[in-house]
Amino acid sequence: EFSVGTSTKIDNGNFFLFRDDGGFFAITAVCTHLGCIVTKIDNGFACPCHGSEFSADGKVIGGPAPRALPWLKVSLTPDCELMVDADEEVTQGTKLAV
Length: 98
Ligand code: FES
Description:
Layout: E1 6-10, E2 15-20, E3 23-28, E4 39-41, E5 44-46, E6 53-55, E7 60-62, E8 71-76, E9 82-90
Antiparallel strand pairs: 1-2, 2-3, 3-8, 4-5, 5-6, 6-7, 8-9
Bound molecules: FE2/S2 (inorganic) cluster (FES).
Residues 31, 33-36, 47, 49-52, 63-65 line the site of FE2/S2 (inorganic) cluster.
């Protein structure tokens, strides 16, 4: 369902799920400024509320956002389903290898 090289916005949880050669990873869609939902753009993310911009890995590259978009914990359930914990941040660059 999630091919290598894709990104998918998961509205129930407000995050983006990515899959690349290194595995799965998730980045929140909640702007670190005042909590608006960012949109994915070609080379990162943009917030429609006050103009914050983030790089593809979530780092702030413009606007008032005080910090990067957090990466979220991705794991596999015992039934081998993907699970993203929107309340648990992980170090940027952490991926679930599959
Ligand atoms: Fe995103 Fe203000 S809430 S820039």
